[in-house]
């Protein structure tokens, strides 16, 4: 009976291999075209490209955080977003308050240091787990690896987000005081 059903299934799906190959080719072509369009957008309109990608990188994880009940990430994201929104608000005001550049610098330097340290600790936890040092402390490899990868993710995510927000704030403040923040490329 099982063999008959198996033969029926194969007969029903005969010719699907060609369709699957065609779908893979369409996927690859779409990815290549999309990449070319993104590169062109970045070259021709860097400011809008940076704003859109920063916004997406900031907001898209919020959807997954809520959907998957990642409360720790949500709390950290809300705290980071609230303070960064305040700092960004201050950096975009005209006229620029005299203490704002120091505030912007201190906040983003603090986030840089925290994300750098978090990434290093996460990387070390992953490497120690790969070398089996977690067993000295009777920590399961799955738990140690989860801990390391989580810290590595937090460090990378907030480090990249912080860098982009800092660059945007620097551009706004520079334009407010009439100085170009971009270096001339020879």
UniProtKB/TrEMBL annotation:
Subcellular location: Membrane
Keywords (A to Z) from UniProt: Membrane, Metal-binding, Transmembrane, Transmembrane helix
Cellular component GO terms held in the UniProt record: endoplasmic reticulum membrane; Golgi membrane
Keyword Membrane: yes
The organism of origin for this protein: Spheniscus mendiculus (Galapagos penguin)
Iron-sulfur is among the record's keywords: no
Membrane-spanning residues: 21-41, 69-89, 110-132, 144-161
Membrane topology qualifier: Multi-pass membrane protein
Superkingdom of this protein's organism: Eukaryota
GO molecular function, one term: metal ion binding
Protein name: Ring finger protein 121
UniProt record, GO biological process: ERAD pathway
């Amino acid at each position: 009976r099982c063999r008959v059903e198996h033969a029926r299934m194969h007969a029903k799906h005969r010719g699907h291999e060609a369709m699957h190959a065609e779908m893979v080719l369409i996927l690859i072509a779409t990815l290549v075209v999309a990449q070319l369009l993104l590169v062109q957008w970045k070259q021709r309109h860097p400011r809008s490209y940076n704003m859109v990608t920063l916004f997406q990188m900031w907001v898209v994880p919020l959807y997954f955080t809520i959907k998957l009940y990642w409360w720790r990430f949500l709390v950290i994201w809300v705290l980071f977003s609230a303070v960064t929104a305040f700092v960004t608000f201050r950096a975009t005001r005209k006229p620029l308050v005299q203490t704002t550049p120091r505030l912007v610098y201190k906040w983003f330097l603090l986030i840089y240091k925290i994300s750098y340290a978090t990434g290093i600790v996460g990387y070390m936890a992953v490497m120690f787990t790969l070398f089996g040092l977690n067993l000295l402390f009777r920590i399961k490899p799955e738990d140690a690896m989860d801990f390391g990868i989580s810290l590595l993710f937090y460090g990378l995510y907030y480090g990249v987000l912080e860098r982009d927000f800092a660059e945007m704030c620097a551009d706004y403040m520079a334009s407010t005081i009439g100085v170009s923040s971009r270096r001339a490329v020879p």
